[in-house]
Every structure is written in C-alpha cells, then in structure tokens.
Amino acid sequence: MSSASDDRRDRDAEGRARNARPRDGLGRPLPYGTDGVERQPEGVVRAPEDTVTEAQALLAAGKPFHAHEVFEDAWKSGPDEERALWRGLAQLAVGLTHAGRGNVTGGARLLRRGAGAVEEWGAKAGRSRPYGLELAQLATWARELAATVEKDGAAVDAEVWAPRLRGGGA
Questions:
Q1: Residue 35 — φ and ψ, nearest 5°?
Q2: Is residue 69 packed enough to be buried (19+ CB in 10 Å), middle (13-18) or exposed (0-12)?
Q3: 63-119, pLDDT tens digit by residue?
Q4: Alpha helices in 126-170 (DSSP H)
Q5: Residue 75 — left, alpha, or beta (φ > 0 → left; ψ -120 to 50 → alpha)?
Q6: How far apart are CA 126 and CA 69, in angstroms?
Q7: Torsion angle of C-alpha atoms 35, 37, 42, 46, degrees rounded to 10
Q8: Burial (CB count within 10 angstroms: exposed 0-12, middle 13-18, buried 19+), residue 36
C-alpha cells in the first residue's frame, strides 16, 4: 500500500524512486527549477580507456561526483579482476567530492582509502599503469590532498585539486 507522499515521489521509467532535483558539480541537490549540472547516465558500459578519458574530463571540470559515477559504472560492469581498481578510483573521486564540500574527515578518509586500494590493486595485478593510469602518482596526490584538507580544515576547490589520471600530478 502506498501513501500519498509515495505517489508524489520522483520515479524513473521503470517506476524506481529517483530524485529529479538538479545537482551541482559536487552532487549537492539544488532547488527544483534551478539549473544544475547534467547528471551522468547510470549503467553505461564503456571501454576502460573511455572510462578514464570521460572521468578525467569531469574531474578537470570540477565535477568529481560525476566522475565517481563513471568509475562506478566500470566497477559494476568490468571484469571481476578489475573491480577493486575501479572501486578505488571511485573512492578517490568521492574523496575529492567530500573535500570540495568541506567534509574534512570523510574526504580525507576516502582519499586515503582510495589511495591504498589503487596501490594494492596495482601491486597484486603487477600493473602500475593500467590504461595509462599513473597509480603511484594518484596515491601520492590523494594522500597530499588528505593532509591539506585536514591541515586547513576547509573545503578545497575540486577543479583546482583535480588529479591528472594519466600522469602529471594535480
């Protein structure tokens, strides 16, 4: 039995609850009727190289929340042996999202967790540069950003702090 409030919920074509409120580049909901950042479609299967390219463009545009959704698609649709890599990259993007929102503790924690995850995956897989990703540089970037966020105790500019996934640092 549904209540009146359930009947007014935003729903997708399959009837699943979906919040249709516009979002900003950090994924924060905005008031209905305002212009937001276009959302990433969910469940898109991309080639790994395309995942990296699309995520990089979103990160460089200050949209780490949206980049995390691209990595999440790869994590869910890719081969089992790469799931930990894509999950770690998603954690890095979410860490940057939280750091951009001013969530010092959560941002630093996710950045460090993602750094450890990509390093561990690279060591186990024997691949330090899968799809051109510079895993060691990404881990260093994440730990430096975590330390900066904790030291400053304030939100960072996600566009300024966006990493270069294929090398070159932040």
A1: -80, 130
A2: buried
A3: 999 999 999 999 999 999 999 999 999 999 999 999 999 999 999 999 999 999 999
A4: 135-152
A5: alpha
A6: 26
A7: 140
A8: middle
Longest dimension (CA), the chain: 55
Closest by Cα among 69, 60, 61 to 90: 69
Using CA of residue 143, residue 144, residue 147, residue 152, what is the dihedral sign?
negative
Inter-residue contact 25 to 66 (CB < 8 Å): yes
Cα–Cα distance list, 99 to 21, 45, 49, 59, 81 (Å): 22, 28, 26, 13, 29
Q: Which residue bears the tokens 């929340």?
A: 65
Is residue 22 within 8 Å of residue 29, measured between CB atoms?
Answer: yes
pTM here? 0.84
70 in Cβ contact with 89 (< 8 Å)? no
In 3D space, the residue among 129, 146, 138 whose CA is nearest the CA of residue 170 turns out to be: 138
- Alpha-carbon distance 92 to 78, whole Å? 18
Distance CA 141, CA 164 (A): 9
Q: Which amino acid is at 55?
A: A
SS3 label, residue 27: coil
Dist. CA 6–CA 134, nearest whole Å = 46
